[in-house]
Please model this.
Amino acid sequence: MHQRLKGFTLVELIVTVAVLAIVAAIAVPSFITMMARGRADTETSDFYRALNYARLEAINRGVNVRVAPDNNSTGTWAGILNVFLASNANPPLRVVPAMASNSTMTASGAETLVEFNNLGSMISPSNALVFTYTNGTITRNIVVCSNGRMILNNGTTCP
Model:
């Protein structure tokens, strides 16, 4: 009796590897895009939460609270952010970590800080402010209205 060897033939192995390579070539770009969108959502949400935290602290404490880029980091809105009392910057109430190195966050003006009063309204700057997040081809907007309301990804205007 003949005894058959168990295993894969070379042809079967080459076909399997080819199919896996094709599937990987299709899936990897989609996965990279999904990861970039996830990073963008996370970074804009962190920025949004920092602004919202400052507003709520201003209301709860009854004093003006500011959000500003840290002077020791890059000094841009994509760098480390500090949330602090307008009357006393040290110690900060909250420190928000910097965004990824290839991310940018720009304000619609040359604003160096955002300040909320005890009613939750934005007093500095005095008009609506649009922050634009960019990471490659992904863009997100955060609009801060003069009444303190913040809107994520709605465009560039207050309702």
Observations:
- The first strand starts at residue 65 and ends at 69.
